[in-house]
Amino acid sequence: MVRTRSEERRVEIVRAALKVIAERGYRGAALSTVAERVGLTQQGLLHYFPTKEALLVAVLEERDRWDTGGGARAMADAWRPDLLASLVEYNAMRPGIVQTFSALLGESVTDGHPAREFFAERYAQVRGSMAEVLRAEFGDRLPSGLTPEQAAPLLAAVMDGLQYQWLLAPESVDMPGAFRTFLDLIQGARGPGLTA
To answer: Which one of 30, 141, 157, 182 is most buried, by most CB atoms within 10 A?
Structure first.
């Protein structure tokens, strides 16, 4: 696929925004800083992304493509339980991006927020893909007794809920460890501390 110069510029801006957010966090990521990194004025950047929120939604979309390797098949495969645990570990290494995602997610529940539609569509797709992956791996019931449709929203909720707790107290919350424990619970594993 051949990209136009405008598309290439948008990709360049999104990647610069990802770096700025990773360095400075959501609130510290000024449009002027992103514009400077790509050799534009702030007004020039606004030609591509009319608001900071529009740019941040593009960053979130890029984050999802990055996390899943892009493409529909890769997106579906990304929701396999073993890969989810790896994703949680990876997220623990990039607090700026996790902070951006979490801040926008929290704000998006308000009416009229520019990221609301993005998150509503994303969660519908994530729940559906997770349920498909769980059904392919376990059939109609996981060893824990949950159906794939029951387990999918729980997986998404625990992933995102752990991110909030970890952002607030990174020294107290072992996000990857807690998520692996939750995976063991829904998959019916019995390990140390887990009883029937």
So the answer is: 182
